[in-house]
């Protein structure tokens, strides 16, 4: 199938825009690749340090210098349900490596924080910057230059993007991303949302809310809603860094373990020692990033990836812009409804056909680049295959589904949920922002109402509890950008605004902060840039100004006389309280040097 004209056009302009920076990046990684693994060139004391803790078999193999060595970069901790299954993975990986005549070592660990724990708390102000810390931690882990390939163990919000950025800094190394899978389904998402809103209205107490949340987040594995963590898994598969079908197999199952062992074997097959050399930096080219954006639109994925994909691409010398996101959204249909965009969770999505059906459908209409490199050694058509457990306990791949098992969850391109993608870019005199439209009803996608301005989500919650948020309004929550306080997610705004919308009020949110994959039924223009702390137009909005958010036309405007608005002095907020406590003082330099949201909000 010939690639869709718009997708080809966007890809070509990315290639042209990135010509010099991409060429420099490829020159760097190819020069590194020419050196081959440097392990055997290390001084004897250096090398002895590198294998001192190995068992006798592995030590002898590394001493002889004749076997490949796989580095494991892990984000394991047992507080994150998504990452707890990784506790078992190093032993699985080491055993699989030995079976293939190789060695595997844990090269290093990277931090992994849970945004679900820090929501609404001061620790959330470290969340976005943790992506850059993870990238640096990945580089530290691989800097020993002991490895022929790497396996990256990570799932959640900033962790996979950080691992990708770190992997790209060692882009000459082959690498496979190894997921752990979602937890089994708990209570329904509709029930979870109902209890949250009832709590916000004071109709149930904390005990009832905690019981509901505990039934939702109830076991090892990734949270089952389609937020950033599961959007990460979709991206790693559609961009060719997972083995086909690996994303949404539940943890601690025979198939999951078999997929992990297969990832080890595959990483050894694509090292520089053989004929299938496939470095990460060459897999992640312009076509792969376009495929990632298309996957994000087709599934209504996390708005966080309008930051992360841009930052990841820049590391690979690729200049991806929000304009590219916007143009691709116009031709990519929305094919999935997974909570918060629908009532199903990722287990239902996987059972209905999942990634294999989605990729097949997009390829059938020329909506993905098929001719890409992948860790599987196939083009993207190889990712329509579904993994099954063979009689000997290994993985075998069979033809994936050609029809959806549940058209309420995933559909083909002939019958999409909507004709355009789940994300839009908004522009206007308030700057640029993004909005997730896949969960917003069509009659709610345009809101024109007076502004209610706050400098924190706590301010809005206080006004809600006091009964002050009456009538139609646009909540403007500013000084939440990366320079101000690290750009926290503002999830605690969702229940009160949802309550007010359900009461019949027309409400919307405009913020220079984040809402992430949990952006729901309330229209939310987020990542507004320039941010208030940079003197952006959002800092000149006053209570009562009429704000128009139009997700259909793609505009975000304050309806104030242009000369009057330009003459206003931007409000300056006291941000000193954001500079200390729970480690925030250690990130002062990050806040000083961080770039704007539309350039990835990166401090690297």
Automatic annotation (TrEMBL):
Transmembrane parts of this sequence: none
Any one biological process term the GO annotation gives: D-gluconate metabolic process
Pathway: Carbohydrate metabolism; Entner-Doudoroff pathway
Domain Dihydroxy-acid/6-phosphogluconate dehydratase N-terminal residue range list: 68-380
4Fe-4S in keyword set: yes
SUPFAM superfamilies: IlvD/EDD N-terminal domain-like, LeuD/IlvD-like
Residues annotated for [4Fe-4S] cluster binding in this entry: 156, 223
Entry cofactors: [4Fe-4S] cluster
This protein's name: Phosphogluconate dehydratase
GO CC terms, sorted: cytosol
Gene: edd
One Gene Ontology MF term: 4 iron, 4 sulfur cluster binding
Reactions catalysed, as given in the entry: 6-phospho-D-gluconate = 2-dehydro-3-deoxy-6-phospho-D-gluconate + H2O
Entry function: Catalyzes the dehydration of 6-phospho-D-gluconate to 2-dehydro-3-deoxy-6-phospho-D-gluconate.
UniProt keyword list: 4Fe-4S, Carbohydrate metabolism, Gluconate utilization, Iron, Iron-sulfur, Lyase, Metal-binding
Entry's family note: Belongs to the IlvD/Edd family.
EC supergroup of this enzyme: lyase
Record's cofactor remark: Binds 1 [4Fe-4S] cluster.
EC numbers, comma separated: 4.2.1.12
Chain segments annotated as coiled-coil in the UniProt record: none
Record-linked Pfam families: ILV_EDD_C, ILVD_EDD_N
Record domain Dihydroxy-acid/6-phosphogluconate dehydratase C-terminal: where: 408-601
PROSITE patterns, sorted: ILVD_EDD_1 (PS00886), ILVD_EDD_2 (PS00887)
